[in-house]
């Protein structure tokens, strides 16, 4: 009888002589990009933050359009973050300037390919193909269409300033228009990398726009969507501190509006020692420490 019980037990746990593991094996490690994509493209929280930003921007622009003295939010040549000076409006028509990728458009198709495609592919070649062929695999960021429609009804010209390539102006115009947030016309309401000598810098294009318009609001997902001066910071803590400088701190939510993007860009840099100040680091005394950068 004991032998029969033993055989039945072995049969239920696999085969004789092989013990079944007490716990299932650890799942494969998730792609490090996944968490950011889960948040930006899938979460209700990111959608709510996006709508919150667009709602605040619409309210701010509405207030500005009702006032007599409209204020430009484009830094003038020679300005610094400690001493910002702005391009004068001088009776120019009102405009609002926006980055495109992950500001007014979610690049869902490109990021899906990035997550599921073969690793170690050349980014520049893949992005160029995306600009040309991915025009229908995008969506407006939550709240963008409603906000941009409202701005246009107020008489504000909506202008896009993006680092997409000028060689692909046609497909970029189509992507914006097909998403319902256009019109976008290269050289008029769409400015692209290659339009000037600044490369990925946007100050030159901003100056061109500000020469024609009183830019009363700007939106983007990177600090470079507001000023190239932010790129001059010497460290991660210094870059963060620049956003709190008294001369510019009041612009966030009052002319400068930031959209969430935990997936890519200049925000994603620094190791543990850069992110967490030394006087804010805590170690659980009951567990060993691991090496961090």
Describe the structure.
By secondary structure, the protein is of the alpha/beta class. It has a single domain (34-261), classed as Rossmann fold. It has helices at residues 2-12, 34-42, 44-66, 108-116, 123-133, 144-153, 169-178, 203-212, 236-242, 246-249, 272-275, and strands at 94-98, 105-106, 139-140, 157-165, 190-193, 214-220, 256-258. The strands form two sheets. Strands 5-4-1-6-7 form a five-stranded parallel sheet, sandwiched between helices. Strands 2-3 form a two-stranded antiparallel ribbon. α2 crosses α3 and α3 (44-66) runs parallel beside α6. The longest helix has 23 residues, at 44-66. Mean pLDDT is 90; it is low at 1-18.
Write the topology of this structure.
Blueprint: H1 2-12, H2 34-42, H3 44-66, E1 94-98, E2 105-106, H4 108-116, H5 123-133, E3 139-140, H6 144-153, E4 157-165, H7 169-178, E5 190-193, H8 203-212, E6 214-220, H9 236-242, H10 246-249, E7 256-258, H11 272-275
Parallel strand pairs: 1-4, 1-6, 4-5, 6-7
Antiparallel strand pairs: 2-3
Helix pairs in contact: 2-3, 3-6
Protein name: Acid phosphatase
Pfam families: Acid_phosphat_B
Organism: Sphingomonas abietis
């Amino acid at each position: 009888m004991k032998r029969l019980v033993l055989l039945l037990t072995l049969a239920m746990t696999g085969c004789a002589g092989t013990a079944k593991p007490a716990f299932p094996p650890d799942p494969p490690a998730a792609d490090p990009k996944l968490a950011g994509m889960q948040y930006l493209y899938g979460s209700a929280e990111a959608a709510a933050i996006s709508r919150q930003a667009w709602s605040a921007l619409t309210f701010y622009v509405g207030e500005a359009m009702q006032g007599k003295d409209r204020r430009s939010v484009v830094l003038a040549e020679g300005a610094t973050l400690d001493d910002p000076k702005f391009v004068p409006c001088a009776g120019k028509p009102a405009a609002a300037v926006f980055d495109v990728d992950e500001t007014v458009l979610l690049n869902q198709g490109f990021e899906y390919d990035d997550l599921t495609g073969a690793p170690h592919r050349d980014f520049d070649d893949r992005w160029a193909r995306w600009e040309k062929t991915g025009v229908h695999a995008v969506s407006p960021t939550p709240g963008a269409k409603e906000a941009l429609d409202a701005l246009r009804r107020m008489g504000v010209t909506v202008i896009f300033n993006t680092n997409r390539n000028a060689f692909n102006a046609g497909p970029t115009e189509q992507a914006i228009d097909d998403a319902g947030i256009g019109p976008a016309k290269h050289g008029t309401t769409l400015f692209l990398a290659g339009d000037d000598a600044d490369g990925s810098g946007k100050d030159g294009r901003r100056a061109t726009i500000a020469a024609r318009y009183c830019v009363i609001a700007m939106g983007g997902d990177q600090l470079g969507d507001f000023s190239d001066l932010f790129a001059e910071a010497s460290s991660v803590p210094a870059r963060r501190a620049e956003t709190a400088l008294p001369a510019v701190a009041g612009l966030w939510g009052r002319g400068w509006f930031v959209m969430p993007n935990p997936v890519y860009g200049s925000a994603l840099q620094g190791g543990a020692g850069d992110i967490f100040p030394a006087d804010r680091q805590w170690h659980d005394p009951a567990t060993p420490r691991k090496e961090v950068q």
